[in-house]
Write a structure and sequence with these properties.
Layout (H helix, E strand, L loop, with lengths): L5 E3 L5 E3 L1 E4 L12 H13 L4 E3 L7 H16 L1 H5 L2 E6 L8 H15 L4 E6 L8 H14 L3 E7 L3 H9 L6 E5 L11 H7 L3 E5 L26 H13 L2 H18 L3 H10 L4 E7 L10 H6 L7 H11 L5 H4 L9
Parallel strand pairs: 3-4, 3-10, 4-5, 5-6, 6-7, 7-8, 8-9, 9-10
Antiparallel strand pairs: 1-2
């Protein structure tokens, strides 16, 4: 079995460097059978992939996680549950962020997840012009001090707001942002600020919703909802178009394929490993199609941890990346695409 390296967050929580993403149970990727999803979560746990990334807005994700906690406790006991990490998100609608509102949301997540304390709460805010995000974070910080939350973290905040939040005295453990070979924006401004403040980057979109794989090497450009039939495929195909288009993406896949063959791994493994090695990155979030036959990638995901890219490998990849558009100029900083 591959040894799973860990990242220690500022509050002491240790997470696996490969996190299991649960956006795929939200309903935007097809129907999910909750009971089968729970059974499959046990396979990830047994492989050492004990960290799950979810959110209060990911459909039944918190309830599915809660059912898994109960199953794990009944079958394996409290010690097994203690080796599980659930990182949820608090994504409120704009409005007053009183202590009552924030505490109510946290209590709701605890009830759904069947835990007495949330390991980590990753906070997202839709509108920077509404400064009540600072109110919400103050209450989250207070709840952390009271022991109801282990780590206070962020999701899709840009560098300026991250620094502002830190300057307001909030201890931020991590910031979850899009970070991939198609989107290297976090390396520009975010990573230096994170390194200076002991904030880890948790990277999503690392495999481009599955597009960064052998499945699309040498293939015609996918178009239309019948082909791009999940939220991930649609989202990251748009990312490819913004970055440089299908021909340049094919050039990238060809280079990744050549490198992957020399290391006896997959294209996806090279893509994930490259991001894992970036400054400030504490982990990569790889989406799980829980309970969907043929969509389990545990063994392949683990192989991403076995790769040691050479300087020559990195130069070959970088030579293609340089041909893509400057996404900081096109989109803006991390998370700007959501605002």
């Amino acid at each position: 079995m591959v040894s799973i390296p860990k990242t220690k967050l500022s509050g002491g929580l240790e997470i696996a460097k490969i996190l299991n993403g649960m956006w795929q149970v939200s309903g935007a990727h097809g129907n999910i059978d909750p009971s089968k999803a729970v059974e499959e979560m046990l396979k990830y746990f047994d492989a050492g992939l004990t960290t799950f990334d979810l959110a209060d807005i990911y459909g039944p994700a918190e309830e599915i996680y809660g059912a898994f906690v109960q199953k794990l406790a009944s079958q394996r006991g409290a010690d097994a549950v203690s080796r599980l990490q659930g990182l949820t998100k608090f994504v409120p609608r704009p409005g007053p962020m009183s202590r009552q509102v924030v505490e109510g949301a946290i209590a709701r997540s605890m009830q759904r997840m069947k835990v007495s304390r949330l390991d980590c709460v990753q906070f997202h805010w839709w509108d920077y012009s509404d400064k009540r995000y600072l109110d919400a974070l103050k209450h989250l910080q207070d709840l952390r001090m009271e022991g109801k939350i282990g780590e206070v973290a962020l999701t899709n905040f840009d560098t300026a707001r991250l620094q502002e939040i830190i300057d307001h005295g909030v201890t931020v453990s991590s910031n979850q942002v899009q970070f991939s070979l198609l989107d290297m924006r976090p390396a520009t401004k975010m990573a230096p600020v994170c390194e200076a403040n002991n904030v880890k980057i948790l990277a999503y979109g690392v495999l481009g919703g599955g597009l960064i794989s052998e499945k699309y090497l040498g293939k015609a450009e996918p178009k239309g909802r019948s082909v791009l039939n999940t939220a991930s495929l649609s989202k990251y195909k748009n990312m490819i178009d913004t970055w440089g288009g299908w021909p340049l993406f094919q050039e990238l896949l060809q280079v990744l394929d050549q490198i992957a063959k020399t290391h006896n791994v997959s294209i996806s493994n090279i893509a994930a490993n490259y991001i894992l090695a970036q400054p400030a990155v504490g982990g990569v979030i790889l989406g799980c199609r829980l309970g969907v036959p043929g969509c389990e990638h545990i063994d392949d995901n683990l192989r991403a941890l076995t790769v040691n890219l050479t300087d020559s490998d990195k130069l070959e990849i970088d030579s293609v990346l340089k041909k893509g558009r400057d996404l900081m100029a096109v989109i803006g900083d991390c998370g700007d695409e959501y605002r």
